[in-house]
Write a structure and sequence with these properties.
By secondary structure, this protein is an alpha+beta fold. 18% of the residues lie in helices and 31% in strands. The protein has an eight-stranded mixed β-sheet with strand order 2-1-11-10-14-13-12-16. The longest helix is centred in the last third of the chain and has 14 residues, at 525-538. The protein starts with a strand and ends with a strand.
Length: 647
């Protein structure tokens, strides 16, 4: 593992400058990195203090920044002998000096300023203001701060693994995004069978026939430079960098605590070579990998020098207070596996970083990310949590789920979560019915975990209804009944074997949900739709659904066939023209700096629903979540014509 290439970004949002060596300063970063930022006019920002990125002109909101050129000259930071004074070296004070920056516009005109010259910065800010459109009416300036103008006030350096980027490009979704035909692709994994869990079962991978060509030609390059990392790392397998989270590494003369993964934004859609917006990287990551993360971020523990080619070694664990606890990708270790009935296997995983405890709630789920020749991921209900041990139930149907069920004790696998909004605190209340079919029973097991039974909110009665054929999920049904009866809330249980009793009809379902205050349903799409219709007729106040849903492949192609349309945001008084290459409405909003709540980004949870004031939308692939007629799931929708949203 070594540093293959080295970069700094003198002005936030503008292009990089490649280096062969650099000084890395504790509490700041690479000398000359993000030493200034140009405000966008949306806020009144002081010119000498750090502020969050929303106040600045950044690439994801102004893609033309990539067409500029940047040069920087740094003042000498050491004494005449080149040595760093011992006392000053403790906090890097001797490594901070003024810098002279030259910015050249695409037209060839340029401006130069010194970070320590307030008047010079003001003159350059005026030059930039004439050429870069504002996003507000406040005066604009070139801001500088001691710790650098990083996205996080806790500055550091970012590391990108080009092998991960290549693996993402080599997925079916990546090849499609890069415009490659099936004939140009090499073999990729196909998981066309049923999946392990209701959240995993609906979506299958791309058509196996289309993915099974004999070509071994590599996919077109997804340039790792678009991820704007300080260091490109050589010698790691794809996604192996995530195993460094929570570790202290030495990079040349620098010590870093690897504190987090990096969630990618629409800035990554811009090709650093052509300066054009070409690949929707957040959509690609979400669909191919099941998360939005690429790269890791390190906090500097010790000032030193780094040179291209320097080895990177792991020294041990980072202090816990330096590591950002999150639901983001990290490795778990398999600690157990047992077959519990028929084709269902329970897999136990230890969260090596212990983050599961911070976010765990009954009803959430875990994403498992594997490499089956290309990135693969699926979502499984968490049926139990014991301290750092997470248990999931996996139905061994389909190549991917068989791989998960076959994991050996001691293996480390990439996971993320817990995810999901259908938790016990939202589902239960009054008389609550949990209605499931087949492997859809696992969310009920997650909701009725023993550690959550005492905390059910004001629940008077629980009704359990389960439908399967030939008692194929009997082991889970028996476990669910035992859990439900172990609590203090009265429980009714009803099982229907379709082999002998047939499928429940509409009147059956209406009778099941009559008098309920809450209904949770999970099963195949037709079953879910039937229960929703019955609940509507019975007047159930609150219906919660878990469906066989995962992000869909092929959506990009469907969106590309749509026409541009004007989108008006009524509350903010702004409008823009949506273009097909921007992706869904959610992605288009995020690219323009609007933060709309979202969770699954696949149309299954309903978190992203927004009121539709006028117009209509299209769903290239029908989402699973049910919303009112005047609402739209922006994560899955595109405009069918001019629309107005209550944002």
């Amino acid at each position: 593992m070594r540093a293959a290439r080295l970069f700094r970004f003198p002005v936030k949002g503008f292009p990089a400058e490649e280096l062969t060596e650099a000084r890395v300063v504790k509490g700041r970063g690479i000398r000359g990195d993000r030493i200034a930022a140009f405000t966008n006019g949306s806020l009144d920002v002081p010119a000498d203090a750090w502020h969050s990125y929303s106040a600045f002109t950044v690439l994801k909101n102004d893609t033309d920044l990539q067409k500029w050129q940047v040069g920087v000259s740094l003042a000498e930071a050491s004494d005449d002998s080149g040595a760093i004074p011992e006392a000053a070296d403790q906090d890097g004070a001797a490594d901070v000096g003024s810098a002279t920056v030259t910015l050249t516009a695409p037209t060839g005109e340029s401006t130069t300023f010194s970070t320590g010259d307030e008047e010079g910065r003001a003159a350059s800010a005026s030059f930039l203001s004439e050429r870069i459109p504002p996003q507000g009416t406040f005066p604009r300036c070139l801001a500088v701060a001691d710790q650098g103008m990083f996205d996080s006030q806790r500055s550091g350096i970012s590391l990108i693994n080009p092998a991960t980027v290549a693996a993402i490009a080599d997925t079916d979704e990546g090849r499609a995004a890069l415009g490659l035909s099936a004939e140009e692709t090499g073999p990729t994994p196909a998981d066309a069978g049923a999946l392990a869990d209701p959240k995993a079962d609906a979506a299958t991978s791309a058509d196996p026939a289309a993915a099974a060509g004999d070509s071994t030609e590599p996919a077109a390059e997804l340039d790792p430079l678009r991820f704007r990392g300080n260091i490109l790392v050589d010698g790691l397998a794809p996604f192996e960098e995530f195993a460094l989270i929570g570790s202290v590494i030495r990079l040349g003369g620098v010590r870093l605590a690897i504190r987090s993964t990096i969630e990618r934004c629409p800035a990554t859609t811009i090709n650093p070579t052509t300066t054009e917006v070409d690949v929707n990287v957040p959509r690609l990551l979400n669909s191919a990998c099941g998360h939005l993360h690429c790269g890791i971020y390190g906090q500097i523990l010790e000032t030193g020098d780094v040179t291209v080619g320097d080895e990177i070694t792991v020294e041990g664990l980072a202090p816990r207070e330096l590591v950002k606890v999150a639901r983001t990708p990290r490795f778990m270790t398999v600690v157990g596996r047992r077959q519990i009935c028929n084709d269902i296997v329970e897999v136990a995983l230890r969260d090596d970083l212990g983050w599961i405890r911070e976010f765990d709630e009954p009803g959430t789920n875990l994403r498992v990310h594997l490499d089956l020749g290309a990135p693969f991921w699926r979502t499984y209900t968490i049926i139990d949590v014991d301290d750092d041990i997470v248990r999931i139930a996996v139905r061994t149907q389909g190549k991917g789920s068989r791989a998960v069920a076959s994991l050996e004790e001691g293996q480390r696998i990439l996971t993320s979560g817990p995810h999901g909004t259908m938790t016990a605190s939202r589902v239960f209340g009054g008389t609550t019915a949990l209605i499931t079919a087949g492997i859809g029973i696992t969310p009920s097991l997650g909701l009725l975990r023993s550690d959550g039974l005492a905390d059910l909110p004001a629940t008077d009665r629980i009704r359990l209804f389960h439908v399967d054929r030939d008692h194929r999920t009997a082991c889970l049904w028996n476990r669910l009944q035992d859990r439900a009866h172990s609590g203090a809330v009265p429980v009714e249980t009803h099982h229907r074997d379709t082999a002998t009793a047939g499928r429940p009809g509409h009147r059956d379902l209406v009778d099941w949900v009559a008098g309920c205050d809450n209904v949770m349903v999970c099963g195949p799409r037709d079953f879910t739709a039937a229960v929703l219709a019955a609940a509507d007729e019975a007047g159930v106040p609150a219906v919660h659904q878990e469906t066989f849903a995962s992000p869909n492949t092929g959506m990009s192609e469907a969106i590309a066939a749509c026409s541009p349309a004007e989108v008006t945001l009524e509350e903010s008084g702004t409008s823009f023209v949506w273009q097909p290459q921007e992706g869904t409405l959610l992605e288009s909003l995020e690219a323009r700096g609007f933060r709309s709540p979202s969770s699954c980004r696949g149309g299954s949870c309903g978190t992203c629903s927004v009121s539709l004031a006028s117009g209509s939308v299209l769903y290239p692939i029908e989402p699973a979540a049910r919303v009112e007629d005047d609402e739209v799931l922006v994560c899955s929708a595109v405009p069918a014509g001019p629309i107005s949203l209550a944002l």
